[in-house]
Fold each of these.
Amino acid sequence: MSGRHDDRFEQLKAEQAAAHGEVDLTEAPAPGTRAAIPRDVHSADPMRLRYVLRLADTSLVLAQRLGEWVGHSPALEEDLGLANIALDLIGQARYLLTYAAELEGRGRSEDDLAYLRDQSEFLNLALVEQPNGDFGQTVVRQLLLDAWQLELYEALQRSSDPRLAEIAAKALKETRYHFRFSASWLVRLGDGTRESHDRAQVALDQLWRFTRELLSADDTDDAMARAQVAPSLAELAPRWNVRIDEVLKEATLQRPVDTPFPWHGKRGQHTEHLGYLLAEMQSLHRAHPGAVW
Amino acid sequence: MIQVTKQDQTSGSARFDHTAGVWRVLGTVHDPEIPILGIVDLGIVRYVRWRDDGHPHIGLTPTYSGCPATEAIKGLVRRALDRAGYANAVLDEVLSPPWTSDWLSEEGRRKLTAFGIAPPAEAVGSPKRLFGSHPIACPRCASEETELLSEFGSTPCKAHYRCTACLEPFDYFKCI
């Protein structure tokens, strides 16, 4: 670490921290704060509904983030690449939200779920709501999630839930391309110039604290694993680690130390960034309900 | 106008005629983003079936989950069927098995090349996939001296390549 703590590295770190809003890492995200308690889901099968919403919201929120790059990427090819990945993720989110709406059985549509739920009802992983930052930060966030979705969809193809199995089989083909994109970019950045290396490392250090949530099971994950709806996260974790370590090694980046606690985006406890994202995503639909092109 | 429902209930051969008729109509519908390619060539029409409700059901599968053409194609199919008198047709969205570029017809591959888009170079199920990537030939000069510019091109189903022999950039229809 010593050689890396030069002025430029510290400067990048400070810029990133300022962009993120400094978070006190010595304390766990306050469980039980009033605003953080999600309104519970209503369904004949609430565990399954919650699980499907987690997958759907993770894809939807990341797609919205990637959409912010359109017209702003470093090169036309990357603009197209990020937009295409966003499109795939929106498509996956639509299948999942449609299924969630059916599980809920209250006559709501995929659009109602996307546009009319509030922040604490969104069950996405906190990782995907993090700001785009520079291109390196977007690539790091993408890689961490792509590797996870890759392993998850691979296993979900064999889900006891046929609906999830068919969505996973479709999504897996697309996710392989996403992973190739993010992994090859992280290698180019990490093993590139001093500047690109340092930016990638800072992004990795900044985002690593959100990875614990990807691999930490709670009661919903456990119930779904027991019902063979979903793979157990304990089985998924080593495969995710291998994938990430391979890419980090080739990218000459250092794997950060794990934080002692997971974030709880999938329980509706989010960082401050999600609210702004939803405000932008939902404002048109809320101002003009039912508006279409 | 053909009264599909009535004839369908009366005779098996009428049902066969109408199945062929629906396929003919579908054969006239083209992909809005790759207009030389029919949706049948593209392999996204999975079936035409008469179900017990007496309606012809047409199974359509998306190429990519988020492909914006999927909605447009549904609209085009609907309009073509309405015009041909199959207003009672039902469009089913089929996800499983997921679409693969292997379902592109020979005719479709030929049309793609003629249009300047390199067709998928190998079968997804092919064992050759295990041993490195298959060379992608330039659709203009047929040279295999080509390089990848981006995994993502102008639509979700295409990647962007450049030919280092004739120097032209071109789209490549991805293997998926």
Amino acid sequence: MKIIGILIMALAVLIAVVPIFYNCQHDGKALTLANGMKVPMKCFWTAMAAIATAVPLFGIGLLQMFSRQKETRRALGALGGVLGVMAIALPTVLIGACMHPDASCNLVMKPALIFMGILTLGLGVASMALPQKLAGQPA
Amino acid sequence: MTLVRLTLRNLAGNAFRSWTVFLCALVVAGLTLSATLILRGAESSLRLALKRLGADIVVVPQGAEAKVETALLMGTPATAWMPAGNVGKLATTPGVAVASPQLYLASLSNASCCSASEMFVVALDPANDFTITPWLKQRLGSDLRLGEVVGGARVFTPPGERYIKLYGYHLTLKGNLEPTGTGLDQTMFLTFETAQAVAKGSKTLAEKPLTIPADSVSAILVNVRPEADPRLVARRIKQDLAGVSAIPSLDLFQTFRRQMSGVLRAVIALMGITWALAVGFIALVFSMAANERRREIGVLRALGAPRTYVFQSLLAEAAILALGGGGVGLCLSLLAIYLFRNLLVVSLGIPFLLPSVPSLLLVVSGGLAVALTTVTLAALIPVYRISCQEPALAMRE
């Protein structure tokens, strides 16, 4: 039972998948430039960056499952926590989401990334703080 | 070894049991908090919306009641028309103190001449309006002038622009109202004069002109005299004026209230089932743990630990797991409801407003108490039985 590793991998999958289906580009909306060219809105780039965050997070979850040493588990937990913070920062600080409050990126993608980022951060902290046995790791 | 240390060691010693009880407490507390917050949030949002309307009676054209209620509740644009002459007739109805007409309009859908698509727009008569004008005078020190608007909490000027475009007409946002969690938050308020100017300008500026039928209004908000009964006045209005429906504010949003009471019953049933399942599951887990730990408890008793010490240590395990799981469950559901509150409003079709901090603390304490009671109650019988057994017998079996 390597709960934390499995949960981190599940969150990584959600962080990658949810934004793909809940951005304005997916809803068929795009910005039209003065020359008539259509470009994706910024929530699309947030979704792409979320995939880039999710891939290493999945790897961390996988390594977390098989790590035997306390130090390794702690280091992986810290890295996972940092990636959780990144997932929160993508739609809030780094790239952002669209202005319209009822757009799907604001209704689903942004809150979902913040929620999953906080969960990832919490799991990272838990894997550093929990006793070996409670974290489901071999002693 | 102290009681706390023994308890913590026991918790760490059996990860499966600890996580199971922790998750049960998490689900029970999280579900209780979510259900309470959503239902209370919807109720307080309705109350605020009624307070914001400030009318004792809403008079609408007959047959348009549901449309107008949905517009006020969810911000879905509605148009309904009745003769403007009704305002004068209403003002002379016995018991009526003020009658304030309103026009219900909507911005165009996905048109470049409108900043917001399908926005509900309410035009008021500043001479006798008692909903927004008093607030405006208090907040801004003046009435709305031509080309000025006030928005609900979620109405904003598009970034990088100075005006809100409505049918190509440039409007200045003078301020925003406090959030109510209802459609009023997405509604824009302007004066009759501005509405007529927008309609006039729309013929040349907009993709499609705005039509306001001559001598027509959409709804009339009525305030009754202090000594008058709103229901009786509403009945009299229905008798005196043909083709209108007078809804006392206490009866407003009845369809929604009925829908909410249906949801409430379903939620209570769901919570009851979850609670019973959680109690049963935790009792089973503790019974298994009690059987598994017979010898261990027997040795503890043989070493001189009194019965109460064993009882307390096992109950402390249950309480720590309940408080930990309950606390995490409460935090997660609070966070999820806060983050996804707009999605809740859109997908469930209910108004929603987060409660104030003191009432939130009360609900959170209630959720924690439910988790603690559930786990302690479920663990009580197995814990009592194991702490009562004879040490010699327990070690031999």
